[in-house]
UniProtKB/TrEMBL annotation, chain A:
Keywords: Membrane, Transmembrane, Transmembrane helix. It comes from Pontibacter flavimaris. The lineage of its organism: Bacteria, Pseudomonadati, Bacteroidota, Cytophagia, Cytophagales. This is Uncharacterized protein. It comes from the Bacteria. The chain crosses the membrane at residues 138-157.
UniProtKB/TrEMBL annotation, chain B:
Its cofactor is Zn(2+). This is Glutathione-dependent formaldehyde dehydrogenase. Pfam families: ADH_N, ADH_zinc_N. One of its GO terms (molecular function) is oxidoreductase activity. The keyword Metal-binding applies. It comes from Pontibacter flavimaris. It comes from the Bacteria. Belongs to the zinc-containing alcohol dehydrogenase family. Keywords: Metal-binding, Oxidoreductase, Zinc. Residues 188-264 form the Alcohol dehydrogenase-like C-terminal domain. InterPro entries: ADH-like_C, ADH-like_N, ADH_Zn_CS, GroES-like_sf, NAD(P)-bd_dom_sf. Transmembrane segments: none annotated.
Length: 172, 384
């Protein structure tokens, strides 16, 4: 702090009214002004970097420890690598990450099917909770879903098929 | 081991995953005994947090038993029962040294603005979370606190996030004796913030939400007034009227990105993702507080940006205070409050669900089915 005061000695009155007790971060921050020394603390040992870890360009390094949940991979990984070329201040960081998340969902489905697993969407969406506690809501949702799917199928079927189905329905 | 597995927006399932390993000399592996679903997990569940990767395991509120420790861990030993704060902190960086344990600089490479949080996307460090049978806990000598004698697991798991975040919301609000405090949101955090506001000497505490069962819970648990904004023409005018037309001394946003109540905010923030969530509660907080008042934000928003009435913040001379809770800093005081019966956090738990039914638990919490306030997941290995 003394050094800083010297640095500002050319400014008349610098720090004259400083009052540490008038700190809007009190008591959330036990103020020691550690950060005034810059990025100089003794860092914890570095976790071995045995996989690809993307890091914000707003810092010079990978943090001493890091999560290893899902390293970037596939097309979504390529998009994430692109996103990390931009700072957290940029839409070019966050929007590609959201796109990558959606691409990753499709990759997840492909991975499931390729691994011989057909995802149970009803179960994954937790609809049995609706069955237990909100049966009418579930019925409405199912009816709306069926109507939308029916409409799409009808729109996709050619004029010829639509007429054929209509006449078959009338014959009954 | 069994672990929750995120598959895409509103799709999760239980899967088998490898048991985590020690990756750093200061790591521990913890066997999970209780794990909660947090309201902020719903931002991930709904696909609103950038860099939420398929295959991740969520869960930042958990307690358990130490199964294994790294070679440099000195304070914990195998078999210790631990409360694990939701934020991962090194204890050595400039921010940790100032007790900003939610803002550690040595645990999250992927976003400098965000501290590291278990199971909260790669934007929060890429760690797998506690909705599983086992979790890797970095910096095991810093964050985890040994469970005090006599404290049960249900109280303990609420001390990992809900109690500290609710308490810090009230603390940041700088409440003075006699102040009127308005809390937006009657979820677990809002209910706890209302409860804790009294501890700072609030003269009047008001909770605003739209779920009647939650409002009723808040009235009973937090001993406060609670009102349904769907029964008001305008919640801001309601607050003004009930505070003799001046506004509340303090407003707390305990909702965050999933807020209802404003069509424009809902469409742009929650449906189209053009904002980092719906900032309705924050609007109401800024506009309801008294001139020169304080707005405390603990509701979670995404990392991009939101439409907020910043002009009113200037014109009213407001102070805005916000942060992720510094759990480690607050734990000693809050453990004491729980042990003395001043706070009884486990009363907030409405559902205890086997981990295997995690998808149903998310659905129930997300859709507020069966009067759900706080679901807790119990892994099969919890009873070993």
């Amino acid at each position: 702090m003394e050094e800083q005061a010297k640095d500002y000695s050319h400014i008349n009155g610098w720090g004259i009214d400083a009052d540490p007790k008038n700190d809007p971060t009190y008591p959330m921050k036990h103020r020691t002004n550690e950060e005034h020394k810059g990025y100089t603390w003794e860092r914890p040992p570095q976790q071995p970097i045995t996989m690809e870890v993307l890091h914000s360009i707003e810092r010079p390094n990978v943090s001493a420890v890091f999560g290893t949940a899902m390293p970037p991979s596939g097309l979504s990984g390529m998009i994430r690598r692109f996103a990390f070329k931009y700072s957290e201040n940029s839409y070019l960081h966050w929007l590609p990450l959201l796109v990558a998340d959606r691409v990753n969902v499709v990759e997840g489905l492909i991975e499931d099917v390729a691994g011989g697993k057909v995802p149970n969407i009803f179960s994954e969406k937790g609809y049995s909770a609706d069955w237990d506690h909100n049966r009418s809501g579930l019925a409405v949702r199912a009816a709306v879903g069926a109507a939308v799917v029916g409409a799409i199928v009808l729109m996709c079927a050619g004029e010829k098929n639509r007429k054929k189905w209509f006449y078959q329905l009338m014959d009954r | 081991m069994l672990a929750m597995n995120y598959r895409g927006p509103k799709r999760v399932r239980i899967d088998h995953k490898p048991i985590p390993e020690i990756l750093h000399p200061e790591d521990a592996i913890v066997r999970v005994i209780r794990s909660c679903i947090c309201g902020s997990d719903l931002h991930l569940y709904n696909g609103n947090v950038p860099d939420t990767r398929v295959g991740s395991t969520f869960g930042h509120e958990f307690v358990g038993i130490v199964e294994e420790i790294g070679e440099d861990v000195q304070k914990l030993k195998v078999g210790d029962k631990v409360i694990v704060p939701f934020n991962i902190s090194c204890g050595r960086c400039a921010f940790c040294k100032q007790e900003l344990y939610g803002n550690c600089h040595e645990a999250n490479s992927q976003a400098t603005a965000v501290g590291a949080i278990y199971g909260y996307s790669h934007t929060a460090g890429g760690y797998n979370g506690g909705q599983a049978e086992y979790v890797r806990v970095p910096y095991a000598d810093v964050g985890p606190t040994v469970l005090p004698e006599g404290m049960d697991w249900d109280d303990a798991v609420m001390l990992t996030d809900v109690v500290p975040t609710g308490y810090q919301a009230a603390e940041m609000a700088g409440i003075q004796k006699g102040d009127t405090v308005v809390v937006f949101g009657a979820g677990p955090i809002g209910i706890m913030a209302a409860k804790c506001s009294w501890l700072f000497g609030a003269g009047r505490v008001i909770v605003i939400d739209k779920e009647e069962y939650r409002l009723e819970f808040a009235r009973n648990y937090s001993q406060c007034e609670a009102y349904n904004f769907e029964e008001m023409d305008d919640p801001v005018v309601f607050i003004k009227k009930t505070t003799d037309w001046l506004g509340a001394d303090v407003c707390i946003d305990a909702v965050g990105a999933e807020a209802a109540g404003n069509v424009l905010q809902t469409i742009t923030g929650r449906k189209l993702l053009l904002q980092a969530g719906s900032a309705t509660a924050l609007h109401w907080a800024i506009n309801s507080v008294k001139k020169g008042g304080i707005v405390s934000i603990v509701g979670v928003y995404g990392p991009t940006d939101n439409l907020v009435p910043i002009g009113n913040v200037l014109n009213k001379g407001l102070t805005i205070r916000a942060n992720q809770a510094s759990v480690k800093r607050l734990l000693p005081r809050l453990i004491d409050h729980v042990q003395k019966g001043i706070i009884n956090p486990k009363l907030l738990i409405t559902h205890r669900v086997p981990l295997e039914e995690v998808a149903d638990a998310y659905r129930m919490f997300s859709e507020k089915l069966d009067n759900c306030i706080k679901p807790v997941l119990i892994p099969p290995s919890a009873n070993m």
